[in-house]
Design brief:
This protein has one domain. It is built from seven helices and two strands. It has helices at 2-10, 24-59, 72-81, 97-115, 120-128, 130-139, 177-180; strands at residues 12-15, 18-21. Strand 1 and strand 2 (18-21) form a beta hairpin.
Length: 182
């Protein structure tokens, strides 16, 4: 049925006044090659993003595996920068959730940039071109230092402040209440 639909859509091609009939298998092969060519960069992009966020989490002293679990990774990231993770629920509110998610993403990127001691220009890049700047942040020699964060910025989002880390980004011995329970 699917091939019949594809052949109906592209069975006859007219070029310079000459009509050519394309077989079902030729059209299906071309269509699948086109879809495959689109998927390859998306897969590469996804793998690079996973590697970058894993590395950023480990530089912040958090287990890297926490970066690959959807929603939980955002909760952990909010805890890293000192935001109350319950604010993620505001993203579910119709009409307002999208705008709030954008504000939250910008605020998280600003605090991540500050925590790594980055300049204002780098933070703008982190907000606007996060894929590229996440990779740079993941593999440069900067270290996580939460004492560099201005907790007065976006203070309405604040939760508990993260424990101060050493210059090398020490791992906290504090239990993760989302995994280990309270």
């Amino acid at each position: 049925m699917f091939l019949n639909l594809l052949s109906t859509l592209g069975a006859t091609i007219t070029v310079n006044g000459k009509s050519t009939t394309v077989s079902d298998s030729d059209f299906a092969a071309a269509f699948l090659a086109f879809i495959g060519a689109l998927m390859l960069p998306i897969i590469i992009f996804g793998i690079l993003q996973i590697i970058a966020t894993w590395k950023i989490f480990t530089k912040c002293g958090v287990a890297g595996w926490k970066s690959i679990i959807p929603i939980y990774n955002i909760i952990v990231l909010m805890q890293i920068v000192g935001f109350n993770p319950l604010w993620i629920l505001a993203s579910l509110i119709p009409f307002v959730g999208g705008i709030f998610s954008l504000i939250l993403t910008i605020a998280i990127n600003i605090r991540i940039g500050r925590g790594f001691g980055k300049s204002d220009g780098f933070i703008v890049g982190l907000v606007l071109l996060s894929f590229i700047f996440d990779l740079i942040l993941a593999f440069d020699k900067s270290t996580w230092n939460p004492s560099k964060i201005n907790y007065d910025s976006f203070s309405f989002l604040n939760g508990t402040r993260p424990a101060a880390a050493s210059a090398k980004g020490s791992k906290s011995s504090k239990k993760d209440e989302w995994v280990d329970g309270k």
